[in-house]
Design goal:
PyrdxlP-dep_Trfase, alpha/beta, Aspartate Aminotransferase, domain 2, Aspartate Aminotransferase, domain 1, EC 2.6.1.1, binds (2S)-2-hydroxybutanedioic acid, pyridoxal phosphate, about 50% helix, L-aspartate:2-oxoglutarate aminotransferase activity
């Protein structure tokens, strides 16, 4: 027997009113506010501060000497060429293969045999974060019992990425607080003591947050030891070009590992070195045994991408491939990367000199010894809080200074404030 339509509707209404009135206010009552992101939260606080003196040396985003965000000239020219010339159709799930091919050359070398032999499974990713996350999900899916060894310290988001992919995390020694340099001996011990076949996360260059990279000789030893132990090296290369000013030189660590026959994984990003921060363009690559395996791996990476975001965005990929496939634009890019790296190096010297002139009792040698976008100052969270509260200087509480935010206009003010909060330490 069929109940009348009106009776059913009345029943549904009555039920949903009953549940509705009770649950309206309770669906998300168990949700507490998330903790502020230790890096992006600093930008939020900076933006909310009305002080005219405020300085942002928090997020790693390049500024010119007037403190303004930069759109590279090569990017402007690429955009002029793209405008009206390209359609905005969906990319394939793996993204723009043109962009990916050019990107692989930067990491693996223009004449890489691995590229010629089609042994690299590679997909466009949502910048470096997206590349790391795709890899972490892939690791979980195909090596479900594995863990990831992460350096101490590392970029805070690395922890979030592998946590959300549900890959257990272990740490390895990296930075030595007393020397403000690499803790090479402990790092090597940790590699030796990790169970054979462990996954290691390595920063290819310009380590974030410390600005401390192994020397070439140390990289060789690290590579050798990882090989002996059968570990998997996963490189996060978010700053290619920012360490030395030359992307080719900054790929040295990766090339050493490739020469030693490692089957590496690599996350690449154009956020910093092309200034394409908000375009979210990057690449994940995994070196495979042969072409057949590379095809299988790539298809699985695409399958992970499909339910998350279907396919990556097109505009940034077009900008990158336009620049890298045109020799003139590529040369312009290389010049501009060097210009950014050099300005930062100049600011390191200026900050150190200012602190020394103020008569700081501390050594600030590490400011010029460290490389890349960041200086790991050694300041305590309390000292950083004083910088923020008393001087409107915004930076992460681990004492990391984004040198990209330091300018000839603010370096004196910054040095003076650092001196004030550290002089009695
Ligand atoms: C940083 O470390 O400041 C950058 O990589 C930006 C970010 O997303 O954290």
């Amino acid at each position: 027997m069929m109940a009348s339509r009106t009776a059913i509707c009345r029943g549904i209404q009555r039920r949903s009113w009953g549940i509705g009135t009770r649950s309206m206010s309770s669906w998300w009552s168990q949700v507490d506010p998330a903790p502020k992101d230790p890096i992006l939260g600093v930008t939020e606080a900076f933006l909310a501060d009305p002080s005219p003196d405020k300085v942002n040396v928090g997020v790693g985003a390049y500024r010119d000497d007037n403190g303004k965000p930069v759109v590279l000239e090569c990017v402007r020219e690429a955009e002029r060429r793209i405008a009206g010339n390209k359609n905005m159709e969906y990319l394939p799930m793996g993204g723009s293969m043109h962009m990916v091919e050019e990107t692989l050359k930067l990491a693996y070398g223009e004449n890489s045999d691995l590229i010629k032999e089609k042994r690299i499974a590679a997909v466009q990713a949502l910048s470096g974060t997206g590349a790391c996350r795709l890899f972490a999900d892939f690791q979980k899916r195909f090596r479900p019992d594995s863990q990831i060894y992460i350096p101490v310290p590392t970029w805070s988001n690395h922890h979030n990425i592998w946590r959300d992919a549900q890959v257990p995390q272990r740490t390895f020694h990296y930075y030595h607080p007393e020397t403000k340099g690499l803790d090479f001996a402990s790092l090597m011990d940790d590699i030796k003591n990790a169970p054979n076949g462990s996954f290691f996360l390595l920063h290819a260059c310009a380590h974030n947050p410390t600005g401390v990279d192994p020397t070439e000789e140390q990289w060789k030893e690290i590579s050798y030891q990882l090989k002996v132990k059968g570990h998997f090296p996963f490189f996060d290369m978010a700053y290619q070009g920012f360490a030395s000013g030359d992307p080719e030189r900054d790929a040295k660590a990766i090339r050493i590992f490739l020469e030693d026959g490692h089957l590496i994984g690599c996350a690449q990003s154009y956020a910093k070195n092309m200034g394409l921060y908000g375009q979210r363009v990057g690449c994940l690559s995994l070196v495979c045994d042969d072409e057949k395996q590379a095809i299988a791996v790539k298809s699985q990476l695409q399958q992970i991408a499909r339910p998350m975001y279907s396919n990556p965005p097109v505009h940034g990929a077009l900008v990158v491939s336009t620049i890298l496939s045109d020799p003139d634009l590529k040369n312009l890019w290389l010049k501009e990367v060097k210009g950014m790296a050099d300005r930062i190096i100049g600011m390191r010297t200026a900050l150190r000199e200012n602190l020394e002139k103020l008569g700081s009792p501390l050594s600030w040698e590490h400011i010029t010894n460290q490389i890349g976008m960041f200086c790991y100052s050694g300041m305590t969270p309390e000292q950083v809080d004083r910088l923020t509260n008393e001087f409107h200087i915004y930076m992460t509480r681990n004492g990391r200074i984004s040198m990209a935010g330091v300018t000839t206009g603010n370096v004196g003010y910054l040095a003076n404030a650092i001196h004030e909060v550290t002089k009695s330490a």
